[in-house]
Design a protein that fits this description.
By secondary structure, this protein is mainly β. Helices cover about 15% and strands about 45% of the residues. It contains two helices and nine strands. β4 (about 55-60) and β5 form a beta hairpin.
Amino acid sequence: MPLVLTKKAELKVKEVLSGEPEPDAALRIQVVAGGCSGFQYRMRFDKTFNDQSDAVFEFDGLKVFVDRSSLLYLEGVEVDYVEGLHDSGFKFSNPNSTGSCGCGSSFSV
């Protein structure tokens, strides 16, 4: 599978989704231009799936939509949820990344 969500990430997304007005929406993960290194990850909830331009993955009932152009940058990526003393959030481990900015919010390939 090109994209992996750890169990911790999956559970956190489900927890957040349960509080949303549309709890049956899917998670959409995108790679967009931006940030100091060239690309950024974007995550949002989405109910719109286009079978011409999107791939769908399922993790224990959680659907994840990825547009085909973003899929090129997500091959082998693991999405985890981490909690620390100073911050918590989703962490992307991308084996294709050749660099990232100092704050870790963008990457280059």
